[in-house]
Amino acid sequence: MFRLAEWPRGTHTHGTMGILQDDCSRFNSTLSGSLTEKNGTSHILSGNATAALYLFIVCIGVPANLLVLVVCLLKPFKSNVTSVYIGNLAGADVLLLSILPFFALEKLWSSWIFGRSWCKFCSFVTMHSFYTSVFSLAALSVDRYIAVVWPISAPRWRTITRARIVAVALWLFAAFPSIPPHILEVDEYLYSFVKSILGFILPVLFIGIISSMIVYKLMHQRRKVPTRTSVPRYRRSLYLLITVVVVFVICWMPFHLLAIIHSVCDHFCFLPLSACGRIFLRNRELATFLAYSNSCINPILYAFVGPNFRKSLNRLLRRSCSCLLTGKNCQKVNITYSSLTYKYSNMAIPLK
């Protein structure tokens, strides 16, 4: 994961340096950015600082995303289409954060000690989680588009069964672009470039176009919305989608820009190798940390931008704490959560 092999000055080495590559063949001698490189270029973040930041993300992100998954299983959320995709995002974030402690230890010890096979597995998990997230955002945008543009026929298409099938298909489909380049026997520079274009640029453009179409419909064709109260509700739903997507782009854009710059200037030699290497080395760790931080930011967005989610989470925490303090058998506080209703639906983000 994030292998950075030696890059001699003045030579063009194919397949020895990359971002988000699973070249683990030099995991004992090739560090992941915690040391100063031989060409004199130091990293913005030291190994100890990077390890501390990684562990901080894990400590915040894992419990927060697990809470999101629990809330998505509560009634009425578990019977909502949108909650399926939100749960998909939370599941991908938990999976990504679960392997982050291994990279924190690598930064701390300045060496990968867990073996080549585990390195490859962690690389695959990282990319698989990323693609699952971006594909889930795309599916969520399509779901919002159907709900807003075709409100009458939407219930026929937006069913829980179909949403769950799509969610499973997203996990399976995300596995294909996560396959390491050496298995596909393709050029690693071209592989990295294509992954950034197909796995990030195009999905983000697609989501942007869909969101723009939703905004257009809400602004210029309000008469197509069945009720007056639906317009602000759909707007709040759109705000949540746009906020999550914008934060996702902000967190992952530097990472993929570095991947594209690295691939292009390595493959076509538009910049001197030493200059391109300095750009890559000095900013890689910061871009990687920013990308990982997206996994612990998402639950915060759900809580602050989604009032309905926040209310159900507060109620769950209050009842759970009450059970712990009183020592009573609180079987009623389970995933059925029958007392939670849609009485806040007019003031919250619709999840259906």
TrEMBL record:
Domain G-protein coupled receptors family 1 profile: 64-302
Protein's membrane topology: Multi-pass membrane protein
One CC-aspect GO term: neuron projection
Protein's cellular compartments: Cell membrane
Keywords linked to the UniProt accession: Cell membrane, G-protein coupled receptor, Membrane, Receptor, Transducer, Transmembrane, Transmembrane helix
Record field: transmembrane: 51-74, 86-105, 130-153, 165-184, 196-216, 237-261
GO terms for MF: G protein-coupled receptor activity; neuropeptide binding
An example Gene Ontology biological process: neuropeptide signaling pathway
Any Pfam family the entry gives: 7tm_1
Entry-linked InterPro entries: GPCR_Rhodpsn, GPCR_Rhodpsn_7TM
Family: Belongs to the G-protein coupled receptor 1 family.
PANTHER family (alphabetical): CHEMOKINE-LIKE RECEPTOR 1, NEUROPEPTIDES RECEPTOR
Protein name: G-protein coupled receptors family 1 profile domain-containing protein
